[in-house]
Amino acid sequence: MAKKPGNVSLEQVIQENKQGIVIMMELPADTYFEANSNTIKLLINRGFEGIYISFQRPFKNISSFFEENGIDIDKLFFIDAAAALSGEQQHEDMHCVRISQKIDIDELVKAIYASLPKLKSKKRFVFIDSLTTITLYKPLSETIRFSEFLVRTVRKDETENITLIFNVAKDLAQKRFIRDVAFRVDQVISVKNNG
Question: Does pTM surpass 0.90?
């Protein structure tokens, strides 16, 4: 089902798919956060608004970095799983959805459903910063269930125009569960290392 990674860019893929698409991005480990930031900047510059589900860095870290780099966080809602997982204090902010430390998959699903209607743009995205990080904290079956829920959400109503992006580290992309998720996506984009 998934298209093989090739010399296709995220910009090409979103221009060709106006009704939403499910994308897996394979990112180099040494420029992972930079690649995430570039993706968000591109989407916002193309008129998208979205939900950023953060498993790698807490909201406070990401939001300050984005603001320093000209990324409009008013176009985003963050689900701060990173702070919850590490037991850090979750900040009160209108852009941040707080979740419990147990990181229940059903709670994540509810947070996504509650946040989607708050996005004003007709072009929306759900961005998972690290699919592989989820598996450090949750059973594989839960990670796959979460991934399948998100894919169904995008596909259930084409008029929703939701773009779903799963990020995985390139060096982990061949793990079996990642290949299982990749089988369900529309496009795999392999991001080259800029170095």
Answer: no
